[in-house]
């Protein structure tokens, strides 16, 4: 059974859905720890209630990204973590962590990458950009993490019809329901199937 570390910054709705799928046996894994950058993140209360080890590690407490990464790696090693799940985590993962967990860090993005991605494109910023573009289709992307924002190999994508949406908040609601299902599906596939990377895509072996 794979050991997971979940990184989160806010409510943790995706984490709750993933944890539910773990508890029901749909995802063969165990959450070893939760790492948050925000001491006020609602997800901390949920994780504590489930007796999951919680760590609050703000990047601003470190003089550089490498030191921040070293602290993260110490905790990840302590818990013998196999995979890192970014469930609404808003900080960039330090390069030394990305290198140590190459192709073992998973993120979800509320749009169809490579569109509407990159630095500063998260949460409502994404949905506002999609709405202002006039697009009638948005979607969800699950991808592995590399050294660049939203640029890692794509695991799964699902389009979402937003032609009926009249504002960014409606887009967010429609996309979030798909996020919950797709993230768990992608994590299960990554943990249970062999795969390779081809042209920045994750290709699963049948």
Question: What does the model show?
Answer:
The protein has helices at 13-23, 43-49, 65-78, 95-100, 124-133, 168-192, and strands at 2-8, 29-36, 53-56, 83-86, 105-109, 137-144, 154-161, 195-198, 201-204. It is of the alpha/beta class and 206 residues long. The chain has two domains: 1-101, Rossmann fold (3-Layer(aba) Sandwich); 107-206, Rossmann fold, CATH 3.40.50.170. Helix 1 packs parallel to helix 6 and helix 5 (124-133) packs across helix 6 (168-192). The two termini are 21 Å apart. The model has no long low-confidence stretch (mean pLDDT 97).
Taking pLDDT < 50 over at least 5 consecutive residues as the criterion, the unreliable ranges are none
Physical arrangement of strands within the biggest beta sheet: 3-2-1-4-5-6-7
Give the name of the CATH architecture of the largest domain.
3-Layer(aba) Sandwich
Distance between the termini: 21 Å
What's the mean pLDDT score?
97
Structural class: alpha/beta
CATH class of the largest domain equals Alpha Beta
N-to-C SSE series? Answer: EHEHEHEHEHEEHEE
> Globular, elongated, flat, extended or rod-shaped: what is the shape?
globular
List how many beta strands DSSP finds. Answer: 9
CATH topology heading of the largest domain = Rossmann fold
Strand content: 25-35%
Helical region count? 6
Question: Which percent bin holds the helix content?
Answer: 25-40%
Largest sheet: 7 strands, mixed
The rounded Rg comes to: 16 Å
Instruction: Please indicate the count of domains.
Output: 2
CATH superfamily of the largest domain: Formyl transferase, N-terminal domain
